[in-house]
Amino acid sequence: MWNGELLDLDAYLTRVGFRPDPDADAITTLRGLHRAHLRSISFENADIVLGVPITLDVPSLQEKMVRHRRGGYCYEQNLLFAAVLERFGFEVTALAARVLLGREGDLPRTHALLRVDRKWLVDVGFGNGGLLTPLPLLQDAFEQQGDWAFRLDLDDALWTLSSYQGGEWLALYDFTEDPRTRADFEILSYYLSTHPSSAFVGRLLVQRTDEHARYAIADHRLTVATPAEGSRKRVLTPEERATVLRDDFGLELPAEVERPTATG
């Protein structure tokens, strides 16, 4: 279903620096792949800013994120990862979530995530402080991942993933287990990558989370956030931004994005 047969698995594993242990159990392999992917492939929307169409077939995802060492947003990241997991023999179901981040109301389900082997929440595409490793899909599941703490709550078939930040639990997103297909994601992705009201259109967004902090660039502003200390922000010059993108996010973005016209 996820076209894993079209994936150059060796090239992907080289890209993320992961070599599976043939003696490891399935969850150890899953956790290792998840962490390696996040460490190596940053969240970014440069193509959307430039008006480049987002294509979600495996050869295109591989060309962009593996061969050209770029990043991507949730649909690109999780669909590539679904193909990887399929090659490893995992059962992968795509789901869709409403991004909350403290908001309430009638929000659309625009975030792509994965359920693996019907018992793991897997998500390498949520740039805003998401999971570092898979989380058991269980009521009241709790896990400390580095300095970050996550929990899952279930209320009448609606799951909510929360992260402990600044002394309180922040709801990141909620979702049901209704399966989604690549075609569903293609429609959602087209809207999010082209509609003027989309948060991804018009400004560069780059994000990466490790065990201790979340690093985010919004146009020319760099934010470094930790669960305990909150956020620190500063404005980057064009030269600083190019250096940070390369050294801290592992990205060499298209020249049109790397040469901004403003620094505020």
Task: Tell me briefly what this model is.
Helix content is 31%, strand content 28%.
Overall description:
By secondary structure, the protein is α+β, with helices and mostly antiparallel strands. The chain has one domain: 2-Layer Sandwich (Arylamine N-acetyltransferase fold), CATH 3.30.2140. The protein contains 8 helices and 13 strands. The strands form 2 sheets. An 8-stranded antiparallel β-sheet has the order 5-4-3-2-9-8-7-6. It has a 5-stranded antiparallel β-sheet with strand order 1-10-11-12-13, with helices on one face. Strand 6 (142-145) and strand 7 form a beta hairpin. The relative contact order is 0.15.
- Spatial arrangement of strands, main beta sheet: 5-4-3-2-9-8-7-6
Radius of gyration over C-alpha positions, nearest whole angstrom: 18 Å
Can you give the helix content as a percent range?
A: 25-40%
Average pLDDT across residues? Answer: 94
> What fold name goes in the CATH topology slot?
Arylamine N-acetyltransferase fold
CATH-defined architecture: 2-Layer Sandwich
CATH classification, class level: Alpha Beta
Instruction: Note the main sheet.
Output: 8 strands, antiparallel
The N- to C-terminal Cα distance equals 45 Å
Q: What is the number of E strands?
A: 13
Query: Beta-strand percentage?
Result: 25-35%
EC number: 2.3.1.118
Pfam families: Acetyltransf_2
Organism: Saccharothrix espanaensis (strain ATCC 51144 / DSM 44229 / JCM 9112 / NBRC 15066 / NRRL 15764)
Enzyme class: transferase
